Structures are given as structure tokens and as C-alpha cells.
Amino acid sequence: MTSVLERISVDRVVFSVEFMPPRDDADEQQLWRAIRELEGLDPAFLSVTYGAGGSRRDRTIRTTGRVARETTLVPMAHLTAVDHSVAELRNVIGWYAAVGVHNVLALRGDPPGDPMGEWVKHPQGLSYADELVRLVRELGDFCVGVAAFPYGHPRCADLDTDADMLVRKFRAGADFAVGQLCYDAADFLRLRDRVAARGSDAPILPGVMPLTTPKMLGKTLELSGAPVPPKVAERLEPLVDDPKSFRAAGIDVVTEMCEQLIAEGVNVLHFYTFNRSKATKEVLGRLGLVASRTP
Ligand code: FAD
What we know:
It contains eleven helices and eight strands. By secondary structure, the chain is an alpha/beta fold. The protein has a single domain, classed as TIM Barrel (Alpha-Beta Barrel). The longest helix is centred in the C-terminal third of the chain and has 21 residues, at about 245-265. The structure holds flavin-adenine dinucleotide.
């Protein structure tokens, strides 16, 4: 039973990949093609997000279980407290253990329907992720990760309070954190400094999303909670009508950010794959982390 912490505590640069539970059978086939393509590149772990509703949630359990059973990869399942009583959370955590998943990303989650709406906890549920960290830890030999926000969680008053909350999650028993995506290495490094200044040296993995289409650029604010950095917008916006050049420049931007992170001692890069492998493979190839392939 290999933990994520073991897989990322190494003396070389490694990467991890994040997938979403499939929506339907066609999606599932696409997902498994991408998983198989990335498996050969030996990611440190593969994580699967936790959906907002029942069937997506079942698919998270099924997918991570299949990864544990049928691949050489180390799976990590996300779990949120949304609409769950503590008894239900115990049940899901029990299912994870039963299907061979011993790494959990413990999250509070967003209010269903409107991510910026008011958080209302389940009457028998939890209010914050640190409580879920404690619950997962209590229930067995799990390695536990949490979310981190280079630009601060959208609901947090300021970056210092946000860093205090992250450190609270580490003190509750989290082993590491995965960062929300960003496109400026300096923003991530400032988060790392804020956490280090509070006496924590738990690993924080930067979230990397290869920017391959103008649509993705448009979704950055929604996904990261922060606008695209001006220097990135200046490079990419003039190319929105030229898909090929946009893609090439988007891959450049992300590769350069990863190079800066590595130069600053970051040794794990967490890729948001959107269930595709090609762009992630390209960035890894450019970084010299796998044999470079022509797209
Ligand atoms: P928390 O850490 O509980 O923070 C929520 C808010 O409460 C913050 O403003 C924080 O500052 C504040 N806070 C935290 N603890 C306390 C405390 N003890 N007292 C007072 N205030 C506190 N969502 C999904 O639905 N499914 C997923 O699979 C998923 N995966 C994600 C993966 C990553 C890497 C990231 C970065 C986010 C992911 N999310 C996912 C989104 C996440 O659930 C939301 O961003 C959610 O709003 C915050 O979750 P959290 O675990 O950071 O919450």
C-alpha cells in the first residue's frame, strides 16, 4: 500500500495527474485511454475528483477502485463534505478502503448549484475541511491531502488568514496540499513562503493546467479564483483566432512556469488533465521529465 507522501518524497522532479469521474460510457473510454497513456510515464499518483451528485460520486469510487485494481498507479480519491452526514462520509471512506484506495484529498466542497452561495452544512455533517481530515485519519491508515489556494480561497478575508487555515489543515493531520491552478510561478511561491513562515514544511503541489484553447483561458477565473496574469494575457489574447499558434504559446507559458517552479526547488507538479493526456505529455516532454514526443 503506497502512499502519496512516499511517492512525492523523492530526490527528483515528479508529476501527478488529476482526472474527473466520467459522465457516461463514451467519457469513460476516453478517460481510460488517457489513463493508460499516462500510466507508462509513471506519475507519482493519479487523483479523481468528487462530483456534486450521487452518480458522479459512485463513479469516483468505481474509477479510483479500478485504478487500484487494474493499473500500476497510486490512486487518490477526492472527497467533499457537501450534502453528507458524518455517517455517510464514514461510509464513503470505508468504500475507498474496501476498493484499495488509501489516499484521500479531504475537501469541504462548494454549495451545490452556486459555488459562491452561502455554505450550509448538512445537519449531521461537517463545516470545514480540517474536520474531514480528522475524520479520515480516525478511520484508518490513510494518507490525507487538502486544497491550497495561491490567490486565497474566494471566501477568505485575506491571504494571511487563508494561509492560517491551510496550516490548520496540516495541524489536523493533512500530509500535503494540492494547489488550485495558477499561471505565475511567483504567486505559488508566495503561498509556499506564507506557509513556511507559519512553521509548516508540508509539501504543497502547484496545480498546472496546460492552456491549449481560448476557452480554457476564459475559464481561468472560474477555475482559479483569479484573473489570468497580465503577462500571460498579453501573450495569448492576440492569438485567440489562430488555434495552432494559441496552443503552441499556451504550452510555452505553462512550460516556462514549470521551469521556474523547478528552479525554485518545487519537485512535484500536479497536472489538471481534463481527462486528456496529450497536452500534459507535451509539457512533460518539454521539461525533460519524459521522452519528448511530437504532438
Ligand atoms: P476549507 O479548507 O474548509 O475552506 C473553506 C473556507 O472556510 C475558506 O474560506 C477557509 O478559509 C475557511 N475555513 C477553513 N477552515 C476554517 C475553520 N476551521 N474556521 C473558520 N474558517 C475556516 N470540489 C469538489 O466538489 N470536488 C473535488 O473533487 C474538488 N477537488 C479540488 C481539488 C483541489 C486541488 C482544489 C484546490 C479544490 C477542489 N475542489 C473540489 C473545490 C473545493 O471543494 C472548494 O474550493 C471549496 O470551496 C473549499 O474547499 P476546502 O477543502 O479548501 O475548504
